[in-house]
Amino acid sequence: MSGYAENEIQKLSQDELKNLLKKVRGELAVKQQVIKEKNLPVIVLVEGWGASGKGTLISYLIRDLDPRFFQVIPVKPPTKEEKRKPFLCRHMENIPEAGKFVFLDSGWMEETVFDMVDGRFSDDELKTRLHDINIFERQLVDNGYLVLKIFVDVSKKIQKERIDNLLSDKDTSWRVSKRDLDEIKHRSKYEKAFSEFIGATNTKKAPWHVIDGSKKQLAELQVYHLLVNGMDNAIKHKDEPVEIPDNVFPLVTMPKLCDVPLDVSLTKEVYKAELKKAQNKLKKLHNKIYRMGVPVIIAYEGWDAAGKGGNIKRLTSALDARGFAVNPIASPDVHEKNRHYLWRFWTRLPKTGHIAIFDRTWYGRVMVERLEGFCSENDWKRAYNEINEFEKNLSDWGAVIVKFWVHIDKDTQLSRFKERESTPEKQWKITDEDWRNREKWDDYEIAVNEMIEKTSTTFAPWHIIQSNDKLYARIQAINTVIDAIEAKLKVLKK
Amino acid sequence: MSGYAENEIQKLSQDELKNLLKKVRGELAVKQQVIKEKNLPVIVLVEGWGASGKGTLISYLIRDLDPRFFQVIPVKPPTKEEKRKPFLCRHMENIPEAGKFVFLDSGWMEETVFDMVDGRFSDDELKTRLHDINIFERQLVDNGYLVLKIFVDVSKKIQKERIDNLLSDKDTSWRVSKRDLDEIKHRSKYEKAFSEFIGATNTKKAPWHVIDGSKKQLAELQVYHLLVNGMDNAIKHKDEPVEIPDNVFPLVTMPKLCDVPLDVSLTKEVYKAELKKAQNKLKKLHNKIYRMGVPVIIAYEGWDAAGKGGNIKRLTSALDARGFAVNPIASPDVHEKNRHYLWRFWTRLPKTGHIAIFDRTWYGRVMVERLEGFCSENDWKRAYNEINEFEKNLSDWGAVIVKFWVHIDKDTQLSRFKERESTPEKQWKITDEDWRNREKWDDYEIAVNEMIEKTSTTFAPWHIIQSNDKLYARIQAINTVIDAIEAKLKVLKK
User: Fold this and answer.
1) Which end of chain B is flanked by fewer CB atoms within 10 Å, N or C?
2) In the predicted model, is pLDDT for residue B381 greater than 90?
3) For the complex shown, is ipTM > 0.85?
4) Which residue segments constitute the domains of chain A, with CATH numbers given?
């Protein structure tokens, strides 16, 4: 816990305090230009007691900021729809673009503490939740975010006074929630939960700052200082490499690509019979997972012209169109590039009971972004762990995760490229970029082998699809999905 | 109502039908490449009775489509949050990008018909709703969308059989909703509402196609034909100019920019006193509109360096940070440019009780896009009416709409540009583009005058802010907002 030398401020006269406030407010307004230039994204999480003045504090803080470069988000309890996504999903959605501020009027702390107080967690669930939050915040900081966490503390007496005051006027009484009243009634229960949360999530990279909310100007002054210092610090250390942790996840041993046999095939007759059988099975399973609320995430990666598109189509044509979505992933749009690289995947996750198919995925980070230099070496080396953390989170949430590397050999790719070039209705499928990528085959193979080795966790292993024969590959993929779903349903039945 | 020559198909043998289906399915798959090349966006709205086979029909239709180029959206009843936005908002959100399909499993028809059956409309409200839907569809078509509207009809007998069948298996019984059962029970009430809706929204540009859902293959075949013909037709007429309707909205007479006096100013003392008074008033009003659920939309346009930013800041610093958002509007991102030009504004509307401030707006269409040739002449000439329709919709919804043209003269702009260039912390505010725009001042003045003349409706008039003196301008703007909100509250109290 850090902050401003409070003793000294306490001694200031009202006028001195006013001048000091004006000064730091001006400093922040200037600093605002710097974060824009340096592309620093800033998250200010303001948590605290009901009626502690969180909203007022934020209103003060933004007073001299350019409204084009910040957003204030009042975070409400999750809706029914939001509850059908992983807990962190809606919080991840709120993160700012590089060069902008987001002020959150409560967030993942309040949501979690209320669940704690309401007794909605088992011990294990709470442990997982707190762990996930620490990972979330650490990933943000490691990816260049300044995460400033403020807890506005007020005594029970002051909280009660303020609530009574709000209740006395019909234009403000709607601001008082049932929860606010409950906090007063069961103060010690909430106190315990708030401290447990703060204790468990007070990390070096994203420490808590507990601010006394009883004197609003002092609180404001402290937060200004925290913000200005935090920004200075973040800018200073912006491009420093981050320590890359050792792997902590259970891994499955995988073969190297060159050791995967590709001389497997199916006759057209066998293929047709197998496909029909598998599609019927998958169709039934789709109903089951919907009913049981199991989310399914299917990730496709593979060589250009390996047959991903046709493979996906055989999968989706067995599915009820209302229960799945295919997300084609191209290079990120501007508003995506300006955020954590996993943001555009967090925001495309399926609801419980639905299937999301990704045609190319978050693994772009350790393939194309690595090889084309779109991110730093430290970025992609760190990404293996970050991605494993991401998938662990999804797996803990209950998702079935199936990851495909659709594999062909270099000769097969060449003949498919040539076929595309000579077939009018396939020409759109082949671009100069495909040829350029082909030249880097060997580099890609190194990257893919490393990726498969480091991210084949027991909860989200890679499956190498043998796709020199597309028919074989389609049956292999669809059966892999069936097996994964059946395994999950079996566990759930126990 | 159009379709396929049904008599002829009825006579086909099962094998002939199968071959025909295969053929048209192939045609659609090929056509899919064409819509991508021609950048045609296609909306297929599938409405109909519960258990009429809408979902199955969509699943068939997409079977041979490339999953990267379509999306199936099952539209559910609106959530509480969605109900705090205009009715069309969530439907507008679902429209596809150019070159892609969206298949909607029910949409604005079902939502409206259920409201009709449940008696949630007064006569006037229903009339407005149906009118809004016609405008919505017409705007989509005029802006290059193919809107294909299918109603899948089945007899009461077949509907009941299918529902009983679904109910008999626990893996499918969840598909049957209370509403489905109600449709059977009160068949004639629903029949009446469905036909009234179809009758009122069956337009030349977006006609209804009623399909017999009792024979699935025949239904599928008909829709394929509708789709293929619809796409051919849309591509053929893609770049033809659209007829521009006469103005139908009540207009306020506005002065030309050159007739607006700019020699008004305030002393610093008067400004400070006035600002304090106005901000206090606005603060109280913000509580009131929140409580009464009134949405407020404030649109800022104006010359470069007219002082929009500072003006907005004085407004927002009076507001509770949790109840407003400032939307800075720059040139559209790729996913925005690929949709109806109002899409990115529809998706940024405030909830009831909230304030949305737009720093630059949808009027870009008739200013920068007109002058830089980013849209066709027909596009921007049509936009006056489209924008008036948009704002009328928001006004009918209950929104307060305040539109500002922040006005300065050419000399004032020059001296502010120069000041920006010579002040280090303001240099980021001035770019080459600003200088280029300045060269086109006269063209802009013509466009702005035309815009103000044609879009100053009684429900959303322009306010010209005299901003040679920024202090005067700020007080003028904030008081205009206060007046508009007070006028609205007065009407609501009656």
Assistant:
1) C
2) yes
3) no
4) 6-236 (3.40.50.300), 257-493 (3.40.50.300)
